Amino acid sequence: MKLLETIENREALLDAMVHNALDGIIVIDAHEIVHAWNPEAERIFGWPSEEAVGKALNALVGLSGLSMGKRRDAGFDPSKRMHAAARHKDGKPLTVELAIASVDVGAQTLFCIAIRDMTLAMVAEARLRNNHAQLKQELDACQRMLDTTPDVICAINASGAFVQVSAASQRLWGYAATELIGRPAFELVHPEDRKKYNDTIRRLCLGETTSIQPFENRFVHQDGHPIHVSWTANWSESDQHLYCVARDITELRHSTRRLAEREQRFESLFEHHPDGVFAFDINGNLISANKAFAQLTGYSAAELSTMSLRAMVAPESLKIVDQHFIEATEGNASSFETMGLRKDHSKYDAHITVVPIIVDDAVVGVHGVARDVTHSKDYERRIEHLATYDGLTGLPNRNLLDDRIKHAIVQAERQGGRVGVLFLDLNRFKIVNDSLGHDKGDILLRIMADRLKQCIRESDTVARLGGDEFVIVLEDVRSPEDVIGIARNLLTVIEKPVTLEGHDFSVSSSIGCSLYPKDGNDAATLLRNADLAMYEAKASGGGSFRFYKADMNERVKARLMHERQLRLALEREELVVYYQPRVDINSNKIVGAEALVRWHHPERGLVPPNEFIPLAEEVGLINELGEWVLKTACQQNRFWQEAGLPGLKVSVNLSPYQLAPDSTITHAVRKSLTQSGLDARWLELEITESSLMQNVESTLTKLAEIRDAGVSISIDDFGTGYSSLSYLRRLPVDTLKIDQSFIRDISGSRDDAAIVSATIALAHTMQLKVVAEGVTSEEQIRFLEEHDCDEMQGFFLSPAVPPDEMQRLLHRGRAPSVPRAHR
Q1: Phi/psi class of residue 771: alpha, beta or left (left: φ > 0; alpha: ψ in -120 to 50)?
Q2: Which range, of 174-188, 260-274, 499-513, 517-531, averages the lowest pLDDT?
């Protein structure tokens, strides 16, 4: 009982030691089997006591090789601690410090191991060593910065003497740093500035302020010349030192003084200049203006401060002003004349000179000088008008007419174009003069002059030669047919009734035309030949038009005959629609067709559209013809669907005239769909790229309306026009059709191949389908396949065919020439 009692007491004692120790306590026997495991050991190694007791220590935490048997024989020194590697329950490596003591319990020797987790301590120690090294590097770097900075960095004690100075003192004051240590700083201050310097230092040292940023005074260089220095200073209460940074601003002060002098000279010139002087920023906002400019424009100085350039320019002069302003912002000075706009909206003639404002090699604005030249310009205009304009009608007279014809000829020579000269007179004008008097005749001439001006473009000229003779100069004439349309319009306008003295009457005109260069190379020849043609027209009866040469006149007659035949063709149902298949490149199946109109001419046979569509556009038949094609294509497509054929999309070409602001194309599309019963998704409308730019806003509006109706839109002949990407992005388009001129040479032309591949990539980026037109070979098909083109059409696959032939192709599901395998 006594021995048991002793053992129990020892176990109680051991248990208290193990559970209350601040170190991890583990008790093991000679075989390293765990007998006790305190809470700190649980925290260190992650093993609960109930899992650890009874297990081998090495298996738990990796503490092996302790050799308890040998240590027992050799004895233990509990004061000695050693480091060992161990592991946590989760496998994380640990570094521990341990001490071992043996305890005899009866006949058995146990070993008590005290353990401390040294992992964090070792990490902290390594971090501390690293921090020391890093701190040393930073201190070295700071010292290098102090030695290389152009400013002087120094410390001054409470007595005003230097205690530390950077190497820049040699450059700033001419003294090495070692020469300044212990020397009073005020000795370097210019005598006239020492009081200011001492007052500032005193305020810092007495704590009246903790920092001065910045202050300036003069110092004296070692060689005696003054130096302007800018200081920043901070007082450190802890070590009673003043820490300062000094910068040499001598050159800055000299530059500032010189700049101030220049500004005063400029200000004097600016304010006292008799002309209006102004300055605008790069965005056209007024920065400054002198009194003369305020007087010129009628605005006060306060009002001018909020003005922009364009607000002071007459609308008709905005273009030229913008042009010269942009040139000035690009670094180019210029002078020009323009029309200014005053505050009261009155206009004045101004001679303007603009020059760029350049700062640091960059244009930041525009300077200018404006001079009022209204009086001189009015005088010039009056003299010029009297010499060049008809006093009755205000039209150019013969003098100015010669200049206009010469100018038109020069333009035509440069551009390879034509000039049309129309010579006309009024039939029955003599009767008006004789019956109603010359004053009424003059009224009639003025009325006719106004009508003629309304019939021509701004670039063309209407002139009066005298009496009832007028001449019209047409620039940029593309073909004789252009002249015919204008002449017909002139004849119609002239014949409209005129009311004079309560009586309605009408006059007709005879018009002759000569064309440059065919009918003459100078103004006199063209006028003479046009006059001869006018007399031929007069001889054939009033209200007629003739070209100068008979062979041209014969072609005009032929054209008029074709116009009549085309009108009859619509009435007699001589027009038919053919269909050219569109094939999916991947599946080789027919997925669409393009509707192409043909004319079954009773004498000429099958006439292609390029021979009669332009005529239809010119004579105003295109809307009627286009709506007929649209209706026919919808009905045919619906017929194929009702016959059990798979649905396909039929595309119909639109003329740009069908998208004019006053056209009814949207109504025509909806009407065709409704009457045919065709679903809108099976209809596609094609518009050429070049026609997009003719009436951009109208085109966008009408295409959006068509798209909203569920009809697809495609751009035909893509790549041949001049549409910009900004418009292309705005268009409600589903498909791009690459023009056949690019497809034709893709296997032999690197440029065409690049254009086609780039177009396909662009279209796919914009989520658009791509159709290649004019496919004529398998090589082209392989190229289009390799570049992921979606669809194709062309003679290699199938020409345009009549409806019944197209129906047979749809039954087969493929065009007759589509290769079976071409991958």
Answers
A1: beta
A2: 260-274
Q: How many CB atoms lie within 10 A of CB 206?
A: 9
Structure tokens, 186: 């005020």
User: For the chain, what percent of residues have pLDDT higher than 90?
Assistant: 33
Q: Which residues of 373-390 are buried (b: 16+ CB within 10 A; e: fewer)?
A: eeeebeeeeeeeeeebbb
**Element of type H or E holding 375:** helix 374-388
Q: What is the pLDDT of residues 428-454, one digit of tens each?
A: 776 666 556 778 888 999 999 999 999
- pLDDT at position 31 is 86
Tell whether the model's pLDDT for residue 820 goes beyond 60: no
Phi, psi at 351, each rounded to 5°: -100, 120
Give me the mean pLDDT over the 134-152 stretch: 73
Q: Is the pLDDT of residue 355 over 80?
A: yes
Report how far residue 24's alpha carbon sits from residue 499's, in angstroms, rounded to the nearest whole number: 124
Determine the Cα–Cα distance for residues 219 and 225; give it in Å rounded to an integer. 9
State pLDDT tens for residues 655-693. Answer: 877 887 667 889 999 999 999 999 999 999 998 876 666
In 533-648, where do the E strands start and end? 544-547, 575-584, 590-601, 605-607
Q: Which two tokens stand for residue 460?
A: 């063309």
**Angle, alpha carbons 77-79-83 (nearest 5°):** 95
Residue 32: strand, helix, or coil: coil
Report the pLDDT averaged over residues 541-561.
Answer: 67
93: Cβ contacts below 8 Å, ≥ 6 apart: 85, 86, 87, 119
Structure tokens of 378? 């009015």
The 3-class SS string of 235-289 reads EECCCCEEEEEEEECHHHHHHHHHHHHHHHHHHHHHHHCCCEEEEEECCCEEEEE
Q: What is the pLDDT of residue 821?
A: 46
Amino acid 20: pLDDT? 74
Task: Decide: 222 and 175 in contact? Cβ < 8 Å.
Answer: yes
CA 10 to chain CA centroid, nearest Å:
90
What tokens does 736 get? 């791009």
d(CA 598, CA 609): 6
Q: DSSP letter for 299, please.
A: -
Q: What is residue 1's predicted lDDT score, i.e. its pLDDT?
A: 42
The continuous run of DSSP H or E covering 490 comes out as helix 480-494
Model confidence at 94, pLDDT cuts 50, 70, 90, reads confident
Per-residue confidence (pLDDT) for residue 123, from 0 to 100: 74
In Å, the largest CA–CA distance within the chain is 166
Q: Any residues with CB less than 8 A from the CB of 684 and at least 6 apart, and which?
A: 592, 649, 650, 651, 652, 711, 712, 713, 714, 734, 735
The secondary structure of residue 456, as a DSSP letter, is S
d(CA 478, CA 491) in angstroms, rounded, equals 21
> Within 10 Å of residue 197's Cβ, how many Cβ atoms?
21
Distance from C-alpha of 774 to C-alpha of 796, rounded to nearest angstrom: 8
Q: Report how far residue 702's alpha carbon sits from residue 526's, in angstroms, rounded to the nearest whole number.
A: 44
Average pLDDT over residues 808-822: 71
Q: Which residue has the tokens 């119609």?
A: 492
Residue type, 333: A
Instruction: Report how far residue 485's alpha carbon sits from residue 516's, in angstroms, rounded to the nearest whole number.
Output: 18
| Tens digits of residue pLDDT in 449-477 | 999 999 888 889 999 998 889 999 999 89
* pLDDT at res. 112: 86
Mean pLDDT of 636-661: 89
473, 476, 477: which is closest to 460 by C-alpha?
473
Quick one: angle between helices 374-388 and 398-415, nearest 10? 100
Token couple for 408: 């038109």
Calpha distance 266→511 (Å, rounded): 65
- For 39, counting Cβ atoms within 10 Å of its Cβ (0-12 exposed, 13-18 middle, 19+ buried), the class is middle
